[in-house]
Amino acid sequence: MNLCDVLVHINEALSAEQKNELEEDMRGLSGVVAPRFNPGQDHLMLVAFNSDRVNCAALLGKVHAHGYRAQLIGA
User: With 80 as the cut, is the pLDDT of residue 27 above it?
Assistant: First the structure.
């Protein structure tokens, strides 16, 4: 297993419900270990993932599928 972290910057201001839905949907991707928003950093989602199972493009694609504009930081 090759664990990596990537930071996703989401342009939109998400409600608590939207953040929870996105985290749950991200967990559904094979290889995603721990997607989470940190309090006080509402536009940033840290995603821990196994790069042997999923790539950064798939992570960003999942965010875009929700209709949000986003960029990867540190990928």
Answer: yes
Q: How far is CA 3 from CA 23, 33, 48, in A?
A: 18, 9, 7
The phi, psi pair for 61, rounded to 5°, reads -60, -35
**In this structure, how many other beta carbons lie within 10 angstroms of the beta carbon of residue 51?**
13
Query: Average pLDDT for residues 7-32, to the nearest whole number?
Result: 97
Q: From the centroid of its chain, how far is CA 29?
A: 10
What's the structural domain count of the chain? 1
Phi then psi dihedrals of residue 69, to 5 deg:
-90, 135
Distance in angstroms (rounded) separating the CA atoms of residues 63 and 73: 14
- Its pTM stands at 0.92
Domain with 11 in it: 3-73
Q: Is the pLDDT of residue 14 over 80?
A: yes
